[in-house]
Structure formats: structure tokens, C-alpha cells
């Protein structure tokens, strides 16, 4: 019975996917030759390909550029108070809203900068925040 299970597992995990995996590997190596990616440890390669999954939210706050606002405006202070009280999952959802991804690029948070801008609408109470994901701008009505 053990031999049967071993052979079955080997078939399912190795032999049955050998051809698709070889095709994938061939295409991957064509676009990214082994000499470039073999210098990385697996964890480094994963971060390079997927981005960083851990975020220092206070550093994110520190790197913000304010337009038509300053750091001490009540709207900005309220925003950061509420933001820091959010659970981790909601903070990552904010990153998706702002940038289109819940991860920071491989360069790290030190290079991730976004702007918070006052859209200067006539009636801010009737306006919702919106983002320009290409420019990394959060438009936050007062």
C-alpha cells in the first residue's frame, strides 16, 4: 500500500505536470535567463517578483507629499488617526485603492511616495475621496 501511495503521489506531483512545467520553465528562462535570477535566494526572488508584503505604516505616513494641504491640517490629522486604527487588511485595501496593488515595490517603502491633495471642490461634504493610481495621488476633500 505504501508503495502504491508513493507512486501515485510521485505521478500526481511530478510526472503528470512534467511537460507543462518544462514548457513554463523554457519560456521563463527565455525571458529571464538563469544567470540573472540564480544570484538570488528564493525569498529575495519572491520579493523581487511579488513586491514586499510587510509595510511600516508610519514610514508610509512620513513619506507623503501634501498638495494644497499641510501636515498639520485637521483633515490630514483625522485621516492618519483613522488610518492607523484600521486593521492590517483594510490598510492593504487602501494601498490597492491608491496604487492598484496591496504590495510595495521591491525598492521598499523608503522610495514609495504618494501625495494627498485637496481637490478644492465647492462642497467637500458631497465629495468622496478618490485616487489617481498612475500618479499615486489621493484626492481627499476637506
Automatic annotation (TrEMBL):
InterPro entries referenced in this protein's UniProt entry, alphabetically: E3A/B/C-like, HECT_dom, Hect_E3_ubiquitin_ligase
One protein family per Pfam: HECT
Molecular function GO terms recorded: ligase activity; ubiquitin protein ligase activity
EC number: 2.3.2.26
Residues annotated as catalytic: 134
Leading EC class: transferase
Annotated coiled-coil segments of the chain: none
Keywords for this protein: Ligase, Transferase, Ubl conjugation pathway
Keyword Transferase appears in the UniProt entry: yes
GO-annotated biological processes: protein polyubiquitination
Catalytic activity: S-ubiquitinyl-[E2 ubiquitin-conjugating enzyme]-L-cysteine + [acceptor protein]-L-lysine = [E2 ubiquitin-conjugating enzyme]-L-cysteine + N(6)-ubiquitinyl-[acceptor protein]-L-lysine
HECT domain segment(s): 1-142
PANTHER family, per the entry: HECT-TYPE E3 UBIQUITIN TRANSFERASE (PTHR45700:SF8), UBIQUITIN-PROTEIN LIGASE E3C (PTHR45700)
Protein's UniProt name: HECT-type E3 ubiquitin transferase
Organism: Regulus satrapa
Taxonomic lineage of the native organism: Eukaryota, Metazoa, Chordata, Craniata, Vertebrata
Amino acid at each position: 500500500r505504501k508503495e502504491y501511495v508513493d507512486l501515485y503521489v510521485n505521478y500526481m506531483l511530478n510526472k503528470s505536470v512534467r511537460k507543462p512545467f518544462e514548457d513554463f520553465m523554457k519560456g521563463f528562462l527565455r525571458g529571464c535567463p538563469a544567470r540573472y535570477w540564480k544570484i538570488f535566494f528564493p525569498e529575495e526572488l519572491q520579493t523581487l517578483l511579488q513586491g514586499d508584503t510587510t509595510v511600516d505604516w508610519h514610514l508610509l505616513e512620513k513619506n507623503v507629499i501634501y498638495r494644497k494641504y499641510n501636515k498639520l491640517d485637521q483633515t490630514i490629522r483625522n485621516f492618519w488617526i483613522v488610518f492607523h486604527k484600521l486593521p492590517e487588511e483594510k490598510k492593504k485595501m487602501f494601498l490597492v485603492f491608491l496604487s492598484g496593488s496591496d504590495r510595495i515595490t521591491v525598492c521598499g517603502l523608503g522610495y514609495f511616495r504618494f501625495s494627498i491633495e485637496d481637490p478644492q471642490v465647492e462642497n467637500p461634504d458631497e465629495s468622496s475621496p478618490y485616487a489617481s493610481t498612475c500618479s499615486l495621488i489621493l484626492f481627499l476633500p476637506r
